[in-house]
Each structure stands twice: as structure tokens, then as C-alpha cells.
């Protein structure tokens, strides 16, 4: 048995068109860069030592962008199913994980039945946004195909704001 209470199988959407401009301020955490206009940027704080994180506050949103290994970000749950990190998130979004693990996964991701999971792709990067009305901490997980590194964006935002955040991201290419 597989999860059946979450939204139906998700299609993978393209990342929203970039809204970055040459005059923006660019905040990089490893291979991911967030851009913001200097007119709306209010605060940047670089956090952490072994795992890079940036606290970013603009007129519209407060968020934390961080890099984290899978054993910290998702408790290595992907290994339980012999999946890559990206395959795990695709299975989560498409209700393809065993039903007997529902409570473990709900607890790990703070997922409820009314939460919305959206999937976006740009080249070999995927974004999985988990947004819910009950949350004070919505999340976007960024993964790369065949990589265990996860970039996590935390904040309080709705689906529209999640797409705005995604349009403010740039990725270093291989």
C-alpha cells in the first residue's frame, strides 16, 4: 500500500523564469545563488561553519537558504527505499512510498493532508516545495540528480511566493 491521502500524481514543471538582474545583490551558498534587488533587500546574515546557510530578509519574505547533507536534511530516508535523494522526493510527491511508513515520513517532513507539494526542474536541478496553510515553516528542497546534497529553503510563504523564490535562484553549472 502506498500513500493515498496527499495530492494526486504531480507533473514536473519548469522553473519559473529568472527575475535576476545584473544590478541585483547575489547571495551564494555553495552551488546555489539567490538574487535580490538592493531596493528590497533588508538584511543578509551568513550562518554556520561546516554547513553554509544564509538568512535573507527582503520587503516580502524572510528565508534561510542552506546546504545540508541528506542524513541531516531528510534523515537519510531515501536509503530506506534504495533511492537517490531526487527519486525519494519524486516518490514522496507522487504518493509512491509505502503506506506503513506514513507516520515516519509525516513526522520527518511535517506533512499534513492539506499540504501541497509541487515539483520543478531546471536542467539537472529539482525543486520540491512543501507549502501548507498550517505551517509557520514552509520549505523548498533543492536536489541534483545523482547527488546526496540538499539545499533547503525555509520560511513562511505560500505557493505564489515559493515560485517567486525559485525565480530568484541561479545554479552553478558543471
What are the salient characteristics of this protein?
5 helices, disordered N terminus, alpha+beta, 174 residues, 3-stranded antiparallel sheet, single chain
Structural class: alpha+beta
Strand count, sense and barrel status of the largest sheet are:
8 strands, mixed
Q: Biggest sheet: strands side by side, in what order?
A: 1-7-8-9-10-6-5-4
| Tally of contiguous helical segments | 5
Distance between the termini: 39 Å
**Rg, Cα atoms, Å:** 16 Å
Instruction: List the helices and strands in order.
Output: EEEEEEHHHHEEEEHE
What portion of residues is helical? 10-25%
Number of strands: 11
**Regions with pLDDT < 50 over 5+ consecutive residues?**
1-8
Kindly report the average pLDDT value: 85
Descriptive overview:
- It is a single chain.
- With about 170 residues, the protein is an alpha+beta fold.
- Helix content is about 20%, strand content about 35%.
- The chain has five helices and eleven strands, in the order ββββββααααββββαβ.
- The protein has helices spanning about 70-75, 75-80, 85-95, 100-110, 160-165, and strands spanning about 10-15, 25-30, 30-35, 40-45, 55-60, 60-70, 115-120, 125-130, 140-145, 150-155, 170.
- It starts with 11 loop residues before the first strand and ends with a strand.
SSE map:
Blueprint: E1 12-14, E2 25-29, E3 32-36, E4 41-47, E5 53-58, E6 62-69, H1 70-73, H2 77-80, H3 85-93, H4 102-109, E7 116-122, E8 125-131, E9 138-144, E10 149-155, H5 159-167, E11 169-171
Parallel strand pairs: 1-7
Antiparallel strand pairs: 2-3, 3-11, 4-5, 5-6, 6-10, 7-8, 8-9, 9-10
Amino acid at each position: 500500500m502506498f500513500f493515498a491521502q496527499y495530492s494526486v500524481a504531480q507533473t514536473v514543471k519548469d522553473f519559473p523564469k529568472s527575475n535576476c538582474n545584473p544590478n541585483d545583490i547575489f547571495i551564494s551558498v555553495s552551488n546555489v545563488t539567490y538574487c535580490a534587488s538592493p531596493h528590497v533587500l533588508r538584511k543578509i546574515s551568513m550562518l554556520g561553519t561546516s554547513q553554509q546557510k544564509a538568512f535573507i530578509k527582503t520587503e516580502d519574505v524572510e528565508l534561510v537558504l542552506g546546504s545540508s547533507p541528506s542524513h541531516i536534511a531528510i534523515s537519510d530516508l531515501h536509503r530506506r527505499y534504495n533511492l537517490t535523494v531526487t527519486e525519494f522526493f519524486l516518490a514522496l510527491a507522487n504518493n509512491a512510498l509505502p503506506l506503513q511508513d506514513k507516520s515516519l515520513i509525516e513526522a520527518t517532513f511535517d506533512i499534513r493532508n492539506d499540504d501541497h507539494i509541487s515539483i520543478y526542474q531546471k536542467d539537472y536541478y529539482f525543486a520540491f516545495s512543501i507549502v501548507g496553510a498550517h505551517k509557520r515553516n514552509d520549505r523548498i528542497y533543492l536536489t541534483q540528480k545523482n547527488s546526496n546534497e540538499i539545499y533547503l529553503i525555509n520560511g513562511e510563504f505560500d505557493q505564489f511566493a515559493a515560485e517567486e523564490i525559485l525565480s530568484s535562484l541561479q545554479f552553478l553549472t558543471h
